[in-house]
Specification:
It is a single chain. With 159 residues, the protein is α/β, with parallel strands linked by helices. Helices cover 40% and strands 21% of the residues. It contains five helices and six strands, in the order E-H-E-E-H-E-H-E-H-E-H. The protein has helices at residues 15-21, 41-66, 79-86, 107-119, 143-151, and strands spanning 7-14, 27-30, 35-38, 70-77, 92-96, 122-126. Strand 2 (27-30) and strand 3 form a beta hairpin.
Length: 159
């Protein structure tokens, strides 16, 4: 709200998971029974729909609570490629810092970071755990971003 922007959520059903579920030799390990069973493509599709609906409800609630506009879209494909295709230089992508330092070296985080870096969009890296709930917000800008920020009156804001 303080940045005068809305939220756009993009839920991407990973095409690789759908593809794996369709293969006749693919199995999944089910808990708590500890059984190996064939992957049911319909169950995987339903799980994606269920998760997308839950994420959309959560985003709508948060956006309403913050007083910002919210849009949500479900796509199917490569998660990082799909998001990368949508990003424009005027966009801002928000990434959460990994909770554990070594998690930053995992393939999903590295791919998300690389997608954000090459997109041309602004990147906001949030700490894994908020340090405090209120206080000043500091924005660091370089180059033309710094010039635009100088033209805009930015006062003290509270999270």
């Amino acid at each position: 709200r303080l940045l005068d922007v809305g939220l756009t959520g993009i839920f991407v059903e990973d095409e690789a998971v759908h593809g794996l579920a369709a293969m006749p030799f693919a199995r999944e390990f089910r808990l708590p029974s500890h059984d190996w069973q064939p992957i049911d493509p319909a169950r995987i599709a339903e799980a994606f729909r269920h998760e997308a609906a839950a994420v959309q409800r959560s985003m709508d609630l948060e956006a309403r609570g913050c007083g910002v506009a919210c849009a949500f879209e479900v796509r199917r494909g490569d998660p990082f490629g799909s998001v990368g295709e949508l990003l424009e230089p005027a966009d801002m992508i928000v990434l959460a810092e990994p909770a554990v330092g070594a998690d930053g070296l995992t393939q999903p985080f590295l791919r998300a970071w690389q997608t954000a870096r090459v997109s041309g969009a602004s990147v906001m890296l949030l700490p894994a755990v908020p340090i405090r709930r209120a206080g000043p917000i500091v924005v660091l800008a370089t180059g033309s971003d710094a010039e635009r920020a100088a033209e805009t009156e930015i006062g003290r804001a509270h999270v």
